[in-house]
Amino acid sequence: NLAQLKDIQQTFGSLLSQLPSKTEVADLLTDITQTGLSNGLEFDFFKPKEEKPREFYAELPIELKVRGQYHEFGRFMSSIASLPRIVTVQDFTIKKADDHSSNNKSKTDELILEANANTYRYLDENELDELKKKKRGKK
After folding, report:
1. Which of 46, 52, 70, 84 is 20 to 30 A off residue 76, Cα-Cα?
2. pTM here?
């Protein structure tokens, strides 16, 4: 079963590589905004929230609001799914933009997408040790 163990370790390593380290998170956030801009979207806001530590990784929620056309939203979602890092989008709503709130008055069919996205990063050994200490302290 040494071959099986090797396969499992290789799969785990591959999955772990999809989780950025703490220092790579800023680049991932930039990638997400660049993906939106390159798909023709305009960001009203992009707000990373407080990390939520899990067993061996941390979840980083992001609140975002973008303007654009329906098909631009679709391309954005598809591009996000194609990023080398794991990003999930959930709890989203699409609504017609208020004509007065648009910077570009010529886009009469402009829409607003509000969503919560999550990305994830792995916790380094020091962070894992801290998390274990906190859990022991709660018992």
Report:
1. 52
2. 0.75
